[in-house]
Amino acid sequence: MEKELIMVRYGELSTKGKNRNDFINLLADNIRRMLKKFTKLTYEVRRDHTYIHLHGEDYEEISKVLKDVSGASSFSLVYKVKNDIEEMKQACLNLCLEENKKTFKVKARRADKVFPMVSDEINRAIASHILKNSDYKVDVHNPDVLVSLIVRQNETYIFTSEVKGAGGYPLGIAGKGLMMMSGGIDSPVACQLMMKRGIKMECIHFASPPYTSQAVITKITDLLKVLSKYQGQIKLYIVPFTKLQEEIYKHAKESYAITIMRRMMYRIATIVAKRSNCLVIANGESIGQVASQTLKSMLEIENVTNLPVIRPLAIFDKVDIIKISRDIGTYDISIRPYEDCCTIFDPKNPTTQPRKETIDKIEESFNYMELVEECCNNLEVIKVDEEYSSSEENFDNYL
Q1: Cβ(310)–Cβ(282) under 8 Å?
Q2: Rounded distance, CA 180 to CA 352, Å?
Q3: pLDDT for 232-290, tens place per residue?
């Protein structure tokens, strides 16, 4: 019995029609990229599963990486035997003895209909062998061990466990998006959810030194280091926002400052997105969470861009967002006490129902487009991956 295969299931990808192969092949490419440090692995890409041949590589270490690959629904360590019922019976018994549990169920599937026994006959033969040679009992409803077999043309694959994968679509299948990354709890979660739907993400952050500290940039890059395990290298655009933000607060009523500031951010994000071929803008907004996230505010803020704006967390409860943040490993970084440009100038009574006439009057009072273009022409670009060092010297130019 060879312990040398990982079987990767497609889940949602199996519902695809004519372009199913595009999804499967991209998923296989992403798996190879994410597992590139395991140099002995070889791959067998099929329409129903992808098989990874271990050739002695450590399954436990591979599984830590594989579970974060978007597009993979689940995977199992598979044991391969010949299409011989006696070998199949003994292999299943050995696996049950290794598990050392109390109840079991056998579930066989014949992918190769030439095999002389039908699935139910296989189930009965293997179950009888396990019952005669162990203390196991059968439980067809809630077994401690589910022994699964797939009978193929040349061999039978057997497994007893299934590891949940990231699900969703293969990264990059839907193009690129630009995430407005604040450094709080919400935007990293939104970014990971976008990746899970097959969108490769770049990020933009609006920085206002000296009002915001360089520690905020370190915080952002530390967040992206965590998120890079889901997609690899992430490009970060750091926008020098101080001059424009000061002008906003000179000309805008305090209650409208956040509204105008968010509109400027969308204008800048739109320019950056189009330059880098991003198809959508995304953020971590949740309806009603703050003044700029009421439906009326979203309407007046968003109408400055002609790109789609996606809010993955729009209807999420904060408790649920925090749970996902903990699950993906960004929470402890997100709660570091460093403020971004939205919170450092936080007005006491921001409007929740901004009026277009007032917005137009404020924006007509100063030459904001010149300042927007200046921001876009002077932004810093950082490429972050898991090996990135968030040291202060990386930001000398930015400061």
Answers
A1: yes
A2: 21
A3: 899 999 999 999 999 999 999 889 999 999 999 999 999 999 999 999 999 999 998 88
Q: Give the Cβ contact number of residue 148 at 10 Å.
A: 19
Q: Are 252 and 260 in contact (CB under 8 A)?
A: yes
What single letter denotes the amino acid at residue 41? L
Q: What is the pLDDT of residue 391?
A: 54
Q: Give 195-233 pLDDT, tens digit per residue.
A: 999 999 999 999 998 888 888 999 999 999 999 989 989
The Cα 85–Cα 89 span in angstroms is: 6
Q: Whole-model pTM? A: 0.84
Distance CA 389, CA 225 (A): 9
* 27, 44, 50, 69, 155 from 78: Cα distances, Å: 20, 14, 12, 19, 12
Cα separations (Å) of 338 from 216, 218, 281, 284?
Answer: 6, 10, 24, 18
Q: How many CB atoms lie within 10 A of CB 241?
A: 25
Laid out side by side, the sheet with 309-310 consists of 309-310, 280-282, 176-180, 200-207, 234-240, 380-384
Span 366-371, mean pLDDT?
96
Return the DSSP state at 303. Answer: T
Distance in angstroms (rounded) separating the CA atoms of residues 103 and 106 = 11
How many CB atoms are closer than 10 A to CB 323? 14
User: How does 173-206 read in b/e, with b if 16+ C-beta sit within 10 Å?
Assistant: beebbbbbbbbbbbbbbbbbbbbbbbbbbbbbbb
Lowest mean pLDDT among 59-63, 92-96, 214-218, 320-324: 214-218
Structure tokens at 27: 């998923």
Residue 21 CB partners (closer than 8 Å, separation 6+): 47
Indicate the residue type of 164: K
48 vs 148: CA distance, rounded Å: 16
Identify the pLDDT of residue 342.
56
| pLDDT score at 392 | 43
List, in order, residues 6 or more apart from 15 with CB less than 8 Å away: none
Phi-psi region of 270 (alpha: psi -120 to 50; beta: other; left: phi over 0): alpha
- Write the CA distances from 106 to 121, 142, 151, integer angstroms: 11, 12, 13
User: Is residue 188 pLDDT above 80, yes or no?
Assistant: yes
Q: What whole-number percentage of the chain has pLDDT above 70?
A: 93
